[in-house]
Write a structure and sequence with these properties.
The chain contains 8 helices and 8 strands. It has 265 residues and is an alpha+beta fold. Among the domains are: 48 residues; 105 residues, Tetrahydropterin Synthase, Chain A, CATH 3.30.479.30. The strands form 3 sheets. A 3-stranded antiparallel β-sheet has the order 3-2-5. Strands 6-7-8 form a 3-stranded antiparallel β-sheet. Helix 3 packs across helix 5.
Length: 265
């Protein structure tokens, strides 16, 4: 027969083991949502050392660190009827552990599904050029929509980044041809502007030379000096164009037939 002392010792050991099993240690970034007899406590516990008295209490650990969630590639039809595959990554964290456990069954899966539908709906409202060139603007819009819908769950979406946009091979070739045509157009415009500027400067130079005829002779001499520095045997004699015009008029005058004189009556 067990005496009273042995019984007391067994009870004390059981109580000590129960208390030891009730001790839980939560890290700095963890919080414990406690359900006591099925009812959630308003204030989550942690971090540090806490007591969870099973089976009365049940604890659910929730991490408060920023987590990443990769959205699988989605088939998106843009506003200009171009089919693309787009994937993204979401950065989010839990601000209210109690809401993240009570309001939604699995906040990570719910956030993933919401991100997929939001990605398709938002990117379907823009054109392909906007999707490729204004990605920062679209990221901000996606983050705002997701954060608005996940706020009742106690989840804060901090950032959304569209990672990759996959185009069909035919569309890639079409974009390459468009870019090449755009570069050719810009090159022609730049060349035409250069020709216009050069013609304007030449016209201004001609006006200055016309006011100072001696400047033409100075330009001739400067050209001869430049040719002489190249150590060649070419000799250039400047010949004004006015002389050629005078010779042409003289030749035309002498080559023209003299008018016949009228006969005397």
């Amino acid at each position: 027969m067990i005496d009273f002392t042995s019984f007391t010792t067994i009870v004390i050991v059981i109580v000590v083991l129960y208390l030891l099993s009730s001790i839980k240690i939560l890290r700095e970034y963890e919080r414990g949502v406690i359900f006591r007899l099925g009812r959630v406590l308003n204030i989550p516990k942690g971090p540090g050392l806490i007591l969870v008295f099973a089976p009365i209490d049940r604890m659910v650990r929730v991490s408060l660190r920023i987590d990443t969630l990769e959205v699988p590639p989605q088939d998106v039809v843009t506003r200009d009827n171009v089919t693309v595959k787009v994937n993204a990554v979401i950065y989010f964290r839990v601000l209210e552990p109690r809401l993240a456990i009570v309001e939604v069954s699995n906040f990570m899966n719910a956030t993933s599904q919401l991100a997929q539908t939001t990605l398709r709906s938002v990117l379907g409202e823009v054109e392909l050029d906007e999707l490729l060139s204004q990605r920062e603007k679209l990221n901000v819009r996606l983050q705002s929509i997701l954060d608005q819908h996940t706020a009742p769950w106690g989840v804060k979406v901090t950032m959304v980044e569209v990672k990759q946009v996959d185009l069909a091979e035919q569309m890639i070739r079409a974009i390459a041809r468009q870019a090449e045509a755009e570069r050719e157009r810009r090159a022609k415009i730049i060349h035409a502007e250069g020709e216009y500027t050069a013609a304007t400067k030449l016209a201004m130079a001609a006006e200055v030379l016309q006011k100072q005829p001696a400047a033409i002779q100075l330009r001739y001499l400067e050209t001869l000096v430049e040719i002489g520095t190249e150590k060649n045997t070419t000799i250039v004699f400047p010949l004004p164009l006015d002389i050629l015009s005078s010779l042409d008029r003289a030749l035309n005058k002498f080559s023209a037939p003299e008018p016949s004189q009228p006969a005397n009556p």
